[in-house]
Amino acid sequence: MSNFLLFAFMCICLIILPGPDTAITTKNTLSFGKQGGFQTLFGTCCALCVHTFAVIVGLSAIIVKSAILFSIIKYAGAIYLIYLGIKTLLSIKQDMNSDMSEIKSSKGHSFFLQGFLTNLLNPKVAVFFLTFLPQFLNPAENSWSQFLIMGITYIVLTAIWFILYITLIQRINVFMKKPKTQKFIQGITGAVLVGFAIKLAFEKAAFK
To answer: Does the reported pTM lie above 0.85?
Structure first.
């Protein structure tokens, strides 16, 4: 591939932009600590692996060019984000002094799934992989191997950024764990997730 350093720099700029992945990671880290954050991140990275595989074998191109497939994934993602957003807003009514270990044991298994589905059901990620990655292809080299390298690079940079992000949240967790602050953040996060869902619902494919 060509201009690898430029590609890595552009990836970093795109990764740090807030999106559904950031919102769900923030929510789970604030509510359940590093365990929630890292499991969510693992789910996100696994979904990015699927997107990488999809662009290598050409599935992303099929999805983006098919209005039906694009719409199905788009609306499924929007519905899931609305579900998470409403669930977060409703959680504000729960007792803030409830046993956290009990909450973790009952919901811990869903952190990975939340991160995985939030990213996987976002067709904008498929569009990004299909439109951004080819700009750095070297015509003289094998395309699938270049896509693989770029996909792995993006996943690694995503993991590094969110590890730093989760660690930062944990360092200011004393303030964040104040009941009023928790309720405020949960309210904002829930509203943001619903907002992302509405935006996603009106998203159009780059190609038809």
So the answer is: no
